[in-house]
Amino acid sequence: MATLTLDNLSKHFGTVRAVDGISFEAKDGEFICILGPSGCGKSTALRMIAGFEEPTGGDIRIDGESMTHRPPNRRPTAMVFQKYTLWPHMTVFDNIAFGLKLRGLSRNEIKETVLNGMDLVSLAGYESRFPSQLSGGQQQRIALARALVLEPKILLLDEPFSSLDALLRVRLREELRRIQRRLGITTIFVTHDQEEALSLADRIAVMNIGKIEQIDEPSTIYAYPKTLFAADFIGAMNLIQATVINGEADVLGINLSVEDEMPEGEKVQIGIRPEDFAIVPAGAATSATALWTAQVDQIMDMGHYRKVLVQVSTAKAEPLKVYANKTIQLSEGDTLQIAPLRYLVYSEGQPPIEIQQHIQTELLTLN
After folding, report:
1. Could you read off the pLDDT of 152-203 as tens digits, one per residue?
2. Residue 294: HSE in the Cβ half-sphere, 13 Å Cα cutoff
3. How far apart are CA 217 and CA 203, in angstroms?
4. Phi then psi dihedrals of residue 265, to 5 deg
């Protein structure tokens, strides 16, 4: 196990700041996902950690020792790429053994290590096959075994499952997490898939335009995204522009509480998760003063719940996303009332404010 420290790490390509002064520390045995859209700099950051890109500035330390100017073969890291990069003319055994042979291990040591690695990724008995005889998922497991047999202190993975089908991705990430926990290896995993990051990571570093917007545990990032980008990128979020008037925000025709200290006329963004709405049945007694009357625009069955798009009748805005329990009888065109139980208030240069409403009523929510 090892700690990895990135200290103000940067990479510039001409005038383009691909990575712009990022810093964080991965603890012993921690699984960190770097999450962000294409072109945000996450793969460049990973390649600098591996030694395949020379940083423009900053430092990379493993267990306190600088790696910034060391070549890849002299770093205690191993990398698994998006493309499997297996040698097509070599057997599975020889693909996994390649790095071990370069290290000069004996034949018996290589055999024992390779077979143990194949057993670790549940592919024992496949050592005589060639990559072309394996499925995509099996090839990616071989690439993982090839990295693990080198016993790196830091395991690096660059979107390793992105070319696989959805069901196989889920199965392989579950297997990867099992292996990582069993070995206790510090792992940095790059992905653009938020579901992948939320299900795998101990902590997620959300990147955007070369910078880290937020690094936190998955539950914290989901419940309390610190920036508008993180709020919009992680999970579904309704973001509504509003104006502060007398300590409240006029949001699509209703008033929602904000902090009393907010300046009059300030523009804010209100963030509401779809599951944080309550649907108030017609005629139900309620203490809610903040209720939207809305029309059901579209209903999508998501399995154990429904995603409902509703159009607020008083506003010409994008439909709001609401998650509803499947027991609720809803049809497109129905009129209903919705109340926000929890929301975040974003204002420029300030951390978001969390507001919760305690509403007495018979509420029909996702749970």
Report:
1. 999 999 998 887 888 888 888 999 999 999 999 999 999 999 999 999 999 9
2. 34
3. 4
4. 85, 0
**Radius of gyration in angstroms for the set of CA atoms belonging to the chain, rounded to a whole number:** 25
Phi, psi of 165 (to 5 degrees): -70, 165
3-state secondary structure of 216: strand
Q: In Å, what is the CA distance from 82 to each residue of 52, 55, 137, 164, 247? A: 15, 22, 12, 10, 50
Return the closest-CA partner of residue 87 out of 74, 96, 76: 96
227 and 239 Cβ atoms separated by less than 8 Å: no
Question: Alpha carbon of 319 to those of 18, 174, 225, 331, 343: distances in Å?
Answer: 35, 35, 22, 16, 17
Task: Say whether 204 sits in a helix, a strand or coil.
Answer: strand
Residue type, position 138, single letter: Q
**What pLDDT, on the 0 to 100 scale, is given for residue 253?**
83
User: In sequence order, which ranges of the chain are alpha helices (DSSP H)?
Assistant: 42-50, 92-102, 107-120, 136-148, 166-183, 194-200, 218-223, 228-233
Report how far residue 214's alpha carbon sits from residue 226's, in angstroms, rounded to the nearest whole number: 7
Instruction: Starting at the earlier edge strand, list the strands of the sheet with 31-35.
Output: 77-80, 154-158, 186-191, 31-35, 203-208, 211-216
Residue 212 has pLDDT above 90, yes or no: yes
> What is the rounded CA–CA span in Å between residue 305 and residue 275?
10
User: Which of the four pLDDT bands, split at 50, 70 and 90, describes residue 47?
Assistant: very high
CA distances from 212 to 49, 102, 241 (A): 16, 37, 24
- Rounded Cα distance between 292 and 256, Å, is 11
Please enumerate in sequence order all residues whose Cβ is within 8 A of that of 58, keeping only pairs 6 or more positions apart, or say none.
Answer: 6, 7, 8, 9, 10, 21, 22, 23, 68
**Angle in degrees, 0-180, between the axes of helices 107-120 and 136-148, rounded to the nearest 10:** 130
Q: What separation in angstroms does the CA of 9 have from each of 2, 273, 366?
A: 19, 33, 42
